[in-house]
Amino acid sequence: SEGKEGVLYACGEWEHGQLGLPWSRKYVVEGETKEYDQEVPSTGERTIGKNTLLPPIPAVDDKEKVSHPHVVPLLRSHHIVKASAGGDHSFVVTDAGRVFCCGKNDTFQLGVTSGPPQAFAATTRMGMEGMAQEGADQREVGPEPVQVVALRWKMVADVSCGDAHTLACCSDGSVYSWGMGNSGRLGLGHFKSLPNPQKVTLPEGGHHVVSVSAGFYHSLALTRDKQILAWGSGDTGQLGQGEYQTSSVPLLLDLSQLDNKSVQWASVAAGEYHSGALTVQGKLFTWGMNNAGQLGLGHTERTCRPTAVGSLTGKKVLRFALGATFGVCVIDNSETLSWGLNLNGQLGHGDTSDRLEPSVIVQLRGVMLKLVACGGRHCASLDENGRMWVWGSNTAGQLCLGDSEDRRSPVMVQGSADLVLGHISCGYSHTLLLSEYEASEVQSRSFYTTGIITMNDPAVERLCIYGSEGGAKYQPLSVLRQFYNKHGFPMSAEPVFIADPVSDRRLLDMILRVQAIAGAIEDVVERVRMVAVCCYYEMGGAHADLVTACRRHVSNLLERLDDRSGVIPLAAVRLGDSRHRALLCKLVCDRMNLPCCLLRGSVPLDPVTGEPSIQVQDAATHHWNVVRAGETGACYIVDCCVAPSRLSLVEGVSPDLLATLLTSDKDLP
To answer: What is the pTM of this model?
Structure first.
């Protein structure tokens, strides 16, 4: 599941801080929104009163769910290459080999507990009232990611979260484990729990581990010479040793019953109480518990040895994933198959009936999945066009669809292709995504491809709006930087404007100023007109030659700031043009709950005269807005670039204008 990645997004269950989002001051009690007037708790304990929890920020939806992917802000400065979602905790690895974690730490599964790395007696999970053993009071950590200091210099290459323990393998082939130790799942030769990472002693033979997979009570590892190591609970045969025995040290997988004793493994995965592995030839084997058909063998008998999935004979499996009690695989004819427990529709067949053998997911026929991930009871995948498909349980919003309704069949996540995803990891009730781009860059790239930011899509913090020489050709910031880096010289002083009301105080003051003036007007249409007038004057509308003046001003500003990046705050642009004013109008309308879209390109023709609704010099690069105002839902075209005496606010536009605009030719570059 390698690809373009770097920025971490998260959604789903958040109560234990597993999404890495900081707590908000606002919370809801009996339908009433209140604001916490004390310092926001820095630890995982964020209870206000008896039962009220501080939600994460960005805000949750109307059902207290984080059902849309949100960027984890604390990790913005790191380039993330691996992510793993566990039961109630999460881990990521950066390109520098550093490890960050967040979430529940009731069994030391985060590996960040302070104090000496002594082992504690293995216990079951305990609530705060039951943490009586030494070191238990140090288990609570904050909701935002923290670095695992014990692994700082280990150059971690892979990490895997189980339900209550965590594994990591390093570039030198070594393995570290920590967390709950009962059943021997840590592989350290004992059954005690560890609050900090400790190196696992591998069997003799110079084994070099390249990937790890943590189940609920057992652990698996794949070596460079394509062998599999297993340790932990073996009560249901999940260790594949030919017997139902537990082992507290790593053991090589038993191949004595296989026809090919020198089989080479390409990948391995651990489920709740079962395991699976794929050979380099594309043959899938499973073993362990099978009460719900999670082995895909056509029956419900458990097995303690690797067993080929018979119904896949003659088919080449390209990739597979295991959930808690089910599995999914993709075969070489692009078909996706699933089997096992189907209580929440996690098999994607449109029903809740279990499957004892791999069955084709009809809705994905013709869709080649290049990545598939399984969680507790949900699935997420990427097709070859970069689109994300999800199905299964959605009680916590983990499907990234904006709601909490289960999906029994695969559904494509709208806009997911814009994220350029390279990796997905599903926890029990949350999902982690690795994208190449920040949310602001995603919106900016989409805007300069489609020419529109819709009414339902608020302007994202740190949104970029910019142009290259000549003004007619627009490039996303990431494309510009890639070009200049490739040729080894700094970005030109061509303006790149960053709209960030959170950190840019001048811009926030400007927005609040416009909001205060326009908000005092009762008539909603006149209020919109006043927003346009204010945006005109706030961005220096009194100057005649706006384009020339703006460029001269920006060049002077960059020289004074000695900034060769070409990136400046929007509020610093005192002599603006249609780009700046239309963006400011969108930011103000978003705050005033006025549905507003931002558009670029030619203005639609007036339905009566047949002439453009707004007369501009260069329609291909003009920026303007459409605002929906009043109880009738009428739309108004707003242009903030002309003088107030000729302010263009065309009334009577059809409410379905946006649908027309999305299918019309707006003279995009």
So the answer is: 0.77
